Amino acid sequence: MERENVVVTKSVSFAIDIIAFCEVLENNKKYVVAKQLLKSGTSIGANIHEAQNAESRADFIHKVKIAAKEIEETKYWLLLCEKAPTYPFDESLKPRITELGLIVYKILSSSKNNK
Known about the structure:
Shape: elongated
Low-confidence stretches: none
Mean pLDDT: 96
Number of helices: 4
Number of strands: 0
CATH architecture: Up-down Bundle
């Protein structure tokens, strides 16, 4: 029986919820932020998925680093939504992106230490 890959599962679930939140943003005519958030929020999982089939440890680390950068960008767009008085915000996304970041940074840390 194959073990669940937590980071893959969480990144897909997060991406699905980001898509739904971006639809809310678009319904509120917040197109620019919706587009940016959609790109960065879904890119996290795409890069984590790519890392699962990396050609080498260096390639794996590189793809996970890109996912980490996308996490930081996603945090930025969510922060703007949270702080801008005319923007909707989904409070449930904040702890989830933080958790995803902690997992990804732990993967990076242990991958670099095992070189």
